[in-house]
Amino acid sequence: MRQGTESKPDLDGMGATVVAAQVRGDEVRWISVGDSPFYLVTQGKLERLNADHSMAPQIDALVERGMLTAEEAEHHPGRHTLREAVMGDPLTLIDKGSRRLGAGDRLLLCSDGVQTLTVEQITAQSERPASALVEAVLAVAKDHQDNVTVVKLERSA
Description:
Blueprint: H1 2-6, E1 18-24, E2 27-33, E3 38-42, E4 45-48, H2 56-64, H3 70-74, E5 95-100, E6 106-110, H4 119-125, H5 130-140, E7 150-154
Antiparallel strand pairs: 1-2, 2-5, 3-4, 3-6, 6-7
């Protein structure tokens, strides 16, 4: 990453997030850096499996302590600032984990643009092909929309 940005000063400070998963039998293992979410959809419920390395969790904690309103937190200018990204330097925040899967479970590896949708919208769209989730994000037509990529893995019954 660093070599690619050295010749392009306008890309200085740019980084990438990553989320990867390996499924073997009834177990999934993952690794992630950044804020790209990795979701498990089981029995109609959406659960984020990996850690969010943006400032959003810290800002949400300020809401829980009554220091910010939910609206202030949603529009906070630092909300999407990454605490860690792949930039060619040694990484300090790496999320790793594993989980057993049940029959019919679905996994969604996403870029952070999917968070344009609510948890309810993501859950509803998870029943459809991954392209439907991407289309739902794009339909919001949000100004300065972040990129959106979705890979859907389904465990057969």
